[in-house]
Amino acid sequence: MLDTTPLITAVDRFADRLRAAPQSRLQRGAAAEALELARELALRTQVREAPGEEPRRMPDAGMFAAADQITVAGRDLALVLADERELAEAVELVEQALGRAGI
Predict the structure, then answer these.
(1) Is 11 exposed, middle or buried (0-12, 13-18, 19+ CB in 10 A)?
(2) pLDDT 10s digit of each residue in the chain, 103 long?
(3) Considering only CA atoms, which of 8, 73, 77, 7 is closest in space to residue 35?
């Protein structure tokens, strides 16, 4: 079984920073960046779980839900990852998004 701890750790770190960020920072793009990350993680999960089916787009639940959305999407993806390459790509995706979020 693949150890997905690096992905869980990266997602939790991003979520913790979002929760600690002031509303002004969330409004300046951190929450939008987190939502886009959550959508991408959810898309990757859906493609693995149901290949050939039309993926559903994660809704925008508001800036204060962004931390929860990346947490859920990241943990869902961690359950379906098949190999180290996919894991490394997912971790890199989270780290890049965190950098762009500026928190």
Answers:
(1) buried
(2) 899 999 999 999 999 999 999 999 999 999 999 999 999 999 999 999 999 999 999 999 999 999 999 999 999 999 999 999 999 999 999 999 999 999 9
(3) 73
Quote the CA–CA distance of 92 and 25 in Å, as a whole number: 22
Unique residue bearing structure tokens 């779980």: 49
Centroid of chain to Cα 21: 17
Q: Are 4 and 78 in contact (CB under 8 A)?
A: yes
Q: How far apart are CA 46 and CA 28, in angstroms?
A: 29
